[in-house]
Amino acid sequence: MPVTKTMPAIIIRDVVVVPGMTVNFSVIKKEAAKACEEAMHAEQLVFVAYQREGVKLLNKDVLYPIGMIAAIKQINKLPDRTMQLVLDVKSRAKMVDVLDDSFTQFKVKEIVENGDDLDRFEKEACLRNLRELYLEYSLLNPKVPKVFDVLPRTVDDLDTVMNRVVNHAILPYEVKIGIIQIIDVKERFEKLLKVLTDEVEVSRIRANILKNTQDKVTKNQREYFLREQLNSIKKELGEDAVSEEAQFMEELEKLEASDEVKEKIKKEINRLSSLNSAGSEASVERGYIETLLELPWDKMSEDNTDVKHAAEVLDRDHYGLEKVKERILEFLSVRALNSRGDSPIICLVGPPGTGKTSIARSIADALGKKYVRLSLGGVRDEAEIRGHRRTYVGAMPGNIVAGLKQAGVKNPLMLLDEIDKTSADHKGDVASALLEVLDSEQNSKFRDHFVGIPIDLSEVLFIATANSASDIPGPLYDRMEIIEVSSYTANEKFHIAKEFLLKKQYEKNGLKTSQISINDAALKRIIEAYTKEAGVRELERKIGEICRKAAREILEKGTKKVTVTTKNLETFLGKEKYRADLKNKKDEVGIVRGLAWTPVGGTTLSVEVNIMPGKGEMELTGQMGDVMKESALAGLSFIRSIAPKYKIAQTFFEQHDIHIHIPEGAVPKDGPSAGITMATAVMSAITGIPVSRNLAMTGEITLRGRVLAVGGLKEKILAAKTAGIKKVLVPLENKADIEEISDEIKEGMDLIYVSSMKEVLEIALW
Ligand code: ADP
Q1: What secondary structure does DSSP assign to 131-184, as a single string?
Q2: For 574-602, how does the pLDDT look when each residue is reduced to its tens digit (9 = 90+)?
Q3: Does residue 353 line the site of ligand 1, with CB under 6 A?
Q4: Are residues 479 and 359 located together in one domain of the fold?
Q5: Ligand 1 and 537: CB distance under 6 A
Q6: Quick check: CB of 356 below 6 Å from ligand 1?
């Protein structure tokens, strides 16, 4: 019969004691120490109760119902009033009641263990299972004691065995307590088995993870040896190993190439088989063979030579550009009639964003050709065109071969983008490599250093682009047929945006026309106030920006349709960025408006001249290059030569200094075209006659006052028009160019041809 007893109690946390253990305890609480001391004089027993983890406040509910009865073996009183106990844990007991507020006296009921309820076989089976499991557990966890230390064969009581396992296994406090709280022996055994099995599984997985990471390092090496072994076994058995070489050979069979090329590749494959396949030489060789097998030696796509179709595609993709389209169609017609003819290379020259790349893409589309673009901007090493020799570590084929590989056929359209931007320092070499690429005499046997075998480029249709024709290296320029793509007027930009860019950007941003609209006035404002460019790239970017913001609004705010007008444009694009450089407020002495061409479009520039007493010196400041200075000197010489006519004393020049300044905007290279502007400004300053604010001019000047032709007239006239200047003096020599300019640009403009400085002065100073 289980007995109910009153006994002194101590409460513990974090440690689990089980019957059979001898343990040391410190008792801090004064009352508890006193109770233990009293017990020492009686039965010498104490109840050990377990408190739940993490709770501070002591009450009955935070104690586990089952604790341990222990015999006090020894008591040591320490000077600080605490007490040191040595306990022999005897058996389990159930807490019945707490008898005092300080938790020192408990009523407890002994538990009679029911291990003997199991029959002999059942007990033996449980014991064996537990032993085996503990063995496995201890092998996976080197930190726990060995099985023969914990569970020697001599111990055959299931309760004792379980208590020992609970004591030694590394388990969380709650889990251990959970086990000892189960009264029935069988149930407790099952719980312990489950906990231990889970532990073994976790330990096994952990061990595996560790092993896998270590294995990976050696795996590659092992695989290599295994493959070698496999090959030699297969050889011995007389079977053919499917080696790398065999695979290459198979690909070679399928390759469309001349016998000569195939023979050469075969040799390389044989060479590979003689090399140590793990060595670096073999890896270079492997890369080489792969490149050779990927090249389109004889593979061609079929061209569409229908010029009418080409015209449709060009019109479908581009607004305006009539002249450009016409020239391209002529070129394509000649090609269609005479495919083997020595046709020149087309080079589209014009400011960025004017559709050069996109025209080239359309041509490829129209002809049914594959399209590859090689960006030559910044290329300064010949090797980038022609490849590295294979002796270099990390050697690679050049751009041209890479482009062919990408195209997969030997007759693609290859766009050589920004051919004028090959870097200047090694330009000679890069240009000569390009020349070999483009020259139809040589390019059927183009040699890439990496590939080594001559490659036929004669079927490739090359088209080049450049921003400025004068920067194209001379020999290349001679091989090219230049087609100029000039900047767009605001009106053209508007149409391009309306008919092409909007659609493109809507699609790109996943917007339907029912969800967004940008009205005409807003488009025009974007062109005027948010972009300053010759092409439409920035404009397209701005439209893209609006689309992204609109998409967000539709998603976040559930707006059905976003409408962009001039009123709300600022919320999409921020403050306006540009204001057109307008004409001067009033007519001034010594200030003349010139016109300049820049790669991003035309611009006006103010030439300012001051005359002051001095020693006949001339000073030039501002944005000036050498050419401009020479041009200024020529202008001044001319003025001195005509001084008597304007009643200027010769001594004037000896007693005055002349200061010419160009505030901003001009590009030095464009120097000479400011010749007549500077001379006019000087003359105005000397004579004190103001120059009309409604006049702009461009033209080069000779020593004898002749006005010479200049370039970029379309852009310059556009710039004048934007600034609101109606009257423009242009060189008579440029008459033919002016006639080519569309009426849309010339409309409302008073263009006056001049051939001599005399005429210029007559119009400007009156
Ligand atoms: P580039 O090569 O001259 O620097 P891109 O061909 O990259 O210019 O053109 C920039 C963008 O403007 C492209 O999206 C292009 O389709 C578009 N674009 C330029 N000109 C036109 C045009 N005339 N019609 C339609 N879209 C154009």
Answers
A1: HHHHHHHHHH-TTSPPHHHHS-TT---HHHHHHHHHHHS---HHHHHHHHT--S
A2: 888 877 667 777 888 889 988 887 766 77
A3: yes
A4: yes
A5: yes
A6: yes
